[in-house]
Amino acid sequence: MVFSQRDIISIRDFSKDDIDYILRIAEKMEPIARSQESSDILSGKLLGMLFYEPSTRTRLSFEAAMKRLGGSTIGFAEARTSSATKGEKLTDTVRTVGEYTDALVLRHNMEGTARLAADIVDVPVINAGDGAGQHPTQTLLDLYTMKRLLGKIRDLHVALVGDLKYGRTVHSLAYALAMFGARMSFVSPPELKMPREIMEDLSGAGVTVQETSEIRDVLSYVDVLYVTRIQKERFPDPQEYLKIKGAYTIDKELLKNSEAMVMHPLPRVDEIAPDVDDTPYGKYFQQAFYGVPVRMALLKSLIKQKI
């Protein structure tokens, strides 16, 4: 099986075979991610990290992935430490750092920036989140989590909960789950429903989705509760955010009659209570770890393919 992607921009660019390939390589990478084995497959290679928006797990797991494979990283964790504060255009920054490195990871608050970057540099570009657009590497680790912990993706019933309008993680995940034939329920306040264009795409692919604003409607039959944060930073009007803040709180009591696995891309605010953390339901910290082997698989596939 050959990986066909030169860049990682949108999960919609992937074939099912591409996803299967990355998940298979990620499983081979897991002992290295856990320090049970070592690798220098990317020794001498350099990853550029351009984070114009805050990040903890995505940024650090990419750094961990590169270093676990013997490579190194350069870049910035926030725009104010870069020449963007002097007015430098994104395109100039990308071109410059692309000259220094073997691949680029880019997070930005504007949709489309990763694809723009991929069009102007010769090294692979990985989209680490572009505004309310896509977050393809998060989707890959989400799929890997489901496969590792539940043994499959096909035929699972996954409820996407919370901010479905602005949440780039659920946008990417919905497309991927449809590709694998998983069933989906969308749970959100009316103001934060999944965008119409995504619903139309899913319908065009023959996918039927249940929509509800009540989380109790789905608890008895879903396999996965994929919970997301209500994203204050995406709201044009702060007052609209305050009306919806805290719309859902998943706690141990709510889950007591459910068999669902609880996932979350993190960070969380108040949507999952701490009393879920140490129960069999809570899998979000394992999910965060799986970002390392998945991103190792991507870096190995992109950079070694380029050599």
Structure characterization notes:
The protein is of the alpha/beta class and 307 residues long. It has 2 domains: 140 residues, Aspartate/ornithine carbamoyltransferase (Rossmann fold, 3-Layer(aba) Sandwich), CATH 3.40.50; 152 residues, Aspartate/ornithine carbamoyltransferase (Rossmann fold). Helices cover 39% and strands 14% of the residues. The protein has 10 helices and 9 strands. Strands 7-6-5-8-9 form a 5-stranded parallel beta sheet, covered by helices on one side. A 4-stranded parallel beta sheet has the order 2-1-3-4, sandwiched between helices. Helix 2 links the parallel strand 1 and strand 2. Helix 1 packs across helix 5, helix 2 crosses helix 10 and helix 3 packs across helix 4. The longest helix is centred in the C-terminal third of the chain and has 23 residues.
Task: Supply database-style keywords.
globular; four-stranded parallel sheet; Rossmann fold; five-stranded parallel sheet; 2 domains; 9 strands; 307 residues; alpha/beta; single chain; 39% helix
- Name the overall outline: globular
Uncertain runs with pLDDT below 50, 5 residues or more?
none
What's the order of the H and E elements? HEHEHEHEHEHEHEEHHEH
**Portion in beta strands:** 5-15%
pLDDT average, as an integer?
91
Distance between the termini: 18 Å
How many domains, in number, for the residues? 2
**CATH H-level name of the largest domain... which superfamily?**
Aspartate/ornithine carbamoyltransferase
Please render the helix and strand layout as text.
Layout: H1 16-33, E1 46-51, H2 57-68, E2 72-76, H3 90-100, E3 103-108, H4 113-120, E4 125-130, H5 136-150, E5 157-161, H6 168-179, E6 183-187, H7 196-204, E7 209-212, E8 224-227, H8 238-244, H9 252-255, E9 261-263, H10 284-306
Parallel strand pairs: 1-2, 1-3, 3-4, 5-6, 5-8, 6-7, 8-9
Helix pairs in contact: 1-5, 1-10, 2-10, 3-4, 5-6, 5-10
